[in-house]
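A student in our group prepared the protein record below, which I am reviewing. What it holds is a sequence and that sequence's fold in C-alpha coordinate form. My question to you is simply how this chain folds and whether the C-alpha coordinates agree. Do not assume that whoever made the record got everything right. I have pasted the whole thing underneath without changing anything:
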Amino acid sequence: LETSMGALEAMMQGCGAGFTPRLGGEMLRLLAECSRHTNRFVREFAYFALRNAFEVCTAEAFLATVAPQTVGLVAAGVRDNWSQVRYAASTAARAFMEKAAEERARFYPELLGPMCLN
Protein backbone atom coordinates (compact mmCIF):
# COMPACT_ATOMS: atom_id res chain seq x y z
CA LEU A 1 0.00 0.00 0.00
CA GLU A 2 2.77 2.47 0.74
CA THR A 3 4.21 1.92 -2.74
CA SER A 4 0.74 2.49 -4.20
CA MET A 5 0.45 5.74 -2.25
CA GLY A 6 3.82 6.80 -3.66
CA ALA A 7 2.63 6.00 -7.18
CA LEU A 8 -0.57 7.96 -6.60
CA GLU A 9 1.49 10.89 -5.38
CA ALA A 10 3.61 10.77 -8.57
CA MET A 11 0.48 10.63 -10.75
CA MET A 12 -0.93 13.70 -9.02
CA GLN A 13 2.30 15.61 -9.53
CA GLY A 14 2.45 14.57 -13.18
CA CYS A 15 -1.15 15.54 -13.94
CA GLY A 16 -1.14 18.78 -11.98
CA ALA A 17 -4.48 20.59 -11.93
CA GLY A 18 -5.77 18.04 -14.44
CA PHE A 19 -6.05 15.60 -11.54
CA THR A 20 -8.73 17.73 -9.85
CA PRO A 21 -11.73 15.87 -11.38
CA ARG A 22 -10.37 12.64 -9.91
CA LEU A 23 -10.39 14.06 -6.38
CA GLY A 24 -13.95 12.98 -5.82
CA GLY A 25 -15.56 10.97 -3.08
CA GLU A 26 -13.95 7.62 -3.90
CA MET A 27 -10.40 9.01 -3.99
CA LEU A 28 -10.89 10.98 -0.77
CA ARG A 29 -12.39 7.91 0.93
CA LEU A 30 -9.33 5.88 -0.12
CA LEU A 31 -6.95 8.50 1.26
CA ALA A 32 -9.00 8.71 4.46
CA GLU A 33 -8.89 4.95 4.90
CA CYS A 34 -5.14 4.85 4.29
CA SER A 35 -4.60 7.72 6.75
CA ARG A 36 -6.11 5.48 9.46
CA HIS A 37 -4.25 2.30 8.44
CA THR A 38 -2.50 0.29 11.16
CA ASN A 39 0.83 0.44 9.30
CA ARG A 40 2.52 3.77 9.99
CA PHE A 41 4.29 3.74 6.59
CA VAL A 42 0.91 3.63 4.84
CA ARG A 43 -0.36 6.49 7.02
CA GLU A 44 2.78 8.52 6.28
CA PHE A 45 2.47 8.10 2.52
CA ALA A 46 -1.26 8.83 2.68
CA TYR A 47 -0.51 12.24 4.20
CA PHE A 48 2.14 12.94 1.57
CA ALA A 49 -0.46 12.02 -1.07
CA LEU A 50 -2.97 14.35 0.61
CA ARG A 51 -0.39 17.14 0.48
CA ASN A 52 -0.04 16.58 -3.25
CA ALA A 53 -3.81 16.49 -3.67
CA PHE A 54 -4.04 19.89 -1.98
CA GLU A 55 -1.23 21.30 -4.12
CA VAL A 56 -2.65 20.17 -7.49
CA CYS A 57 -6.34 20.78 -6.78
CA THR A 58 -7.97 23.94 -8.09
CA ALA A 59 -8.84 26.44 -5.37
CA GLU A 60 -12.55 26.26 -6.17
CA ALA A 61 -12.73 22.47 -5.89
CA PHE A 62 -10.54 22.54 -2.81
CA LEU A 63 -12.78 24.93 -0.91
CA ALA A 64 -16.03 23.38 -2.09
CA THR A 65 -15.29 19.67 -1.72
CA VAL A 66 -11.79 18.62 -0.72
CA ALA A 67 -11.16 20.84 2.32
CA PRO A 68 -14.40 20.08 4.18
CA GLN A 69 -13.82 16.33 3.73
CA THR A 70 -10.13 16.32 4.69
CA VAL A 71 -9.70 18.92 7.45
CA GLY A 72 -10.42 16.29 10.11
CA LEU A 73 -7.93 13.86 8.56
CA VAL A 74 -5.17 16.44 8.63
CA ALA A 75 -5.96 17.32 12.24
CA ALA A 76 -5.83 13.63 13.19
CA GLY A 77 -2.53 13.19 11.36
CA VAL A 78 -0.70 15.90 13.26
CA ARG A 79 -1.77 14.11 16.46
CA ASP A 80 -0.42 10.69 15.38
CA ASN A 81 1.89 8.89 17.79
CA TRP A 82 4.57 8.36 15.10
CA SER A 83 6.77 11.38 14.39
CA GLN A 84 7.12 10.42 10.72
CA VAL A 85 3.34 10.47 10.30
CA ARG A 86 3.11 13.78 12.17
CA TYR A 87 5.75 15.24 9.85
CA ALA A 88 3.89 14.06 6.72
CA ALA A 89 0.62 15.41 8.13
CA SER A 90 2.35 18.71 8.93
CA THR A 91 3.40 19.07 5.30
CA ALA A 92 -0.21 18.34 4.34
CA ALA A 93 -1.43 20.95 6.85
CA ARG A 94 0.90 23.55 5.36
CA ALA A 95 -0.35 22.79 1.83
CA PHE A 96 -3.94 22.83 3.13
CA MET A 97 -3.57 26.29 4.65
CA GLU A 98 -1.73 27.66 1.61
CA LYS A 99 -4.49 26.42 -0.71
CA ALA A 100 -7.22 27.77 1.59
CA ALA A 101 -5.66 31.24 1.26
CA GLU A 102 -8.12 33.92 2.42
CA GLU A 103 -10.59 31.26 3.56
CA ARG A 104 -8.16 29.63 6.00
CA ALA A 105 -9.90 31.13 9.04
CA ARG A 106 -12.84 28.79 8.30
CA PHE A 107 -10.62 25.86 9.24
CA TYR A 108 -8.87 27.33 12.29
CA PRO A 109 -11.26 25.72 14.80
CA GLU A 110 -10.23 22.22 13.69
CA LEU A 111 -6.62 22.74 12.62
CA LEU A 112 -5.01 25.61 14.49
CA GLY A 113 -4.71 23.92 17.89
CA PRO A 114 -3.22 20.64 16.62
CA MET A 115 -0.87 22.53 14.31
CA CYS A 116 0.43 24.73 17.12
CA LEU A 117 0.86 21.85 19.55
CA ASN A 118 2.70 19.79 16.98
Observations:
- The first helix runs from residue 2 to 15.
- Residues 44 and 84 are 6 Å apart (CA to CA).
